[in-house]
């Protein structure tokens, strides 16, 4: 089994990037080969704290490869009990649809222009981190194709814990986010997020960044 970590990068202020700037962030992550395609574009009601690999609609889009237009709902993890705690300690509740998917990253730009950006939550999901990038190889211990990365553009601010065990009691400092990057990993040489990803995020989100992680 082992412990999975979801690490995030966000601006200090919970600002929503203009759609063109968000698109450039997404494109640079793929062009600079810190992530691998295919990408998937989601819109609807998303939870920025949903565990990427296990219950989120992002994970469903990545692993299930549904057809464009497919509605997606957050799944219950089979061993987690239902509770009223806020995510990531409690249940996430997401309802979204797959707007587009593809291998060529430039195709995400017209898909974003047609998306309900700013009116609904938006996520661009990448298949995994790319260990062929030296910065990613230096961060991860071994190659793992389950290292999903998601760029979020949220219609309204949500809060992420700065450091939280999702199997513990709720509590601790949180940070409000609207535009953010989240990636997951299991074995790494240091606590995330990976510096190669942070460097690209700083170019588009600004130098005043907040980072954090949840694990469990």
Task: Write a concise synopsis of the structure shown.
The chain is of the alpha+beta class and 216 residues long.
Question: Descriptors for this entry?
Answer:
alpha+beta, 216 residues, nine-stranded mixed sheet
Describe it:
The structure is a single chain. The model has no long low-confidence stretch (mean pLDDT 95). The protein has a nine-stranded mixed sheet, with helices on both faces. The longest helix has 13 residues, at 19-31. It has helices spanning 19-31, 57-64, 108-114, 134-139, 195-205, and strands spanning 5-11, 35-45, 71-73, 95-102, 121-129, 149-161, 163-165, 174-185, 209-215. It is of the alpha+beta class and 216 residues long.
List the topology elements.
Blueprint: E1 5-11, H1 19-31, E2 35-45, H2 57-64, E3 71-73, E4 95-102, H3 108-114, E5 121-129, H4 134-139, E6 149-161, E7 163-165, E8 174-185, H5 195-205, E9 209-215
Parallel strand pairs: 7-9
Antiparallel strand pairs: 1-8, 1-9, 2-4, 2-5, 3-4, 5-6, 6-8
Helix pairs in contact: 1-3, 1-5
**What kind of sheet is the major sheet?**
9 strands, mixed
Order of helices and strands: EHEHEEHEHEEEHE
**Fraction of helical residues:** 10-25%
The shape, in one word, is globular
What is the CA-atom radius of gyration, in angstroms? Answer: 16 Å
Spans where pLDDT lies below 50 across 5 or more residues = none
Identify the strand order in the major beta sheet.
3-4-2-5-6-8-1-9-7
How many distinct beta strands? Answer: 9
* SS-derived structural category: alpha+beta
Contiguous helical run count: 5
